[in-house]
Design brief:
A hairpin with a 5-residue loop joins strand 2 and strand 3. The longest helix has 21 residues. This protein has two domains: 107 residues, no CATH class; 43 residues. Helix 2 packs antiparallel against helix 3. It has 175 residues and is of the alpha+beta class.
Length: 175
């Protein structure tokens, strides 16, 4: 059985001429708009509501911002995605801030647009090395904290690598 599985891996056909690698960086565009929007939200809450309700509204908005920050790539959050890689066989992996490599599956409702890419991912599995997957204990909190969608803007990665990923998502993912 193991020999058969090894032969199938060895017989796997390459679908890309070279691997695609993206090193992600924080988006200045996204952070700028977030700051502007946050100032407007806090000002509106404080101006329009009584002090107690305004304080509760600001606290709720702060909690929503912290949760959203944990979902963004290239932040200091330990589970934040720092890089993406698609190997020549079409297998996508991501690396988090802790240096762990996760294998993933891209779902068909992924959005590929000239201004951004929204990856809808599932089946995250931790890799021990390039070929073996590790069974990770999955608590409800860990499932909630793992990213399910990744927003990648044009200022977060190298233009050429981002274009290669965009083409692969649009056409190569169908194979």
């Amino acid at each position: 059985m193991l020999v058969c599985a090894t032969r199938m891996i060895a017989m796997k056909k390459a679908i890309l001429s070279s691997e695609i690698g993206l090193r992600l960086r924080p988006s200045k565009f996204l952070w700028g708009w977030w700051w502007l929007f946050s100032i407007l939200v806090v000002f509106s809450l404080v101006d329009c509501l009584p002090p107690v309700w305004a304080a509760l509204g600001v606290l709720a908005y702060l909690l929503a911002c912290v949760w959203q920050w944990t979902q963004l790539p290239a932040t200091r959050w330990p589970w934040s995605v720092q890089s993406l890689r698609v190997d020549v066989f079409g297998q996508m992996t991501l690396t988090d801030k802790r240096g762990q490599i996760w294998s993933l599956i891209v779902l068909p409702d992924t959005v590929v647009h000239p201004a951004c890419i929204v990856l809808h991912i599932s089946a995250l599995a931790l890799q021990a090395d390039a070929s073996t997957l590790v069974q990770t204990p999955s608590t409800p909190m860990m499932r909630w904290l793992r990213p399910k969608r990744l927003l990648i803007l044009s200022d977060q990665a190298d233009t050429q690598a981002l274009q290669a990923l965009r083409v692969w998502l649009k056409w190569g993912l169908r194979e």
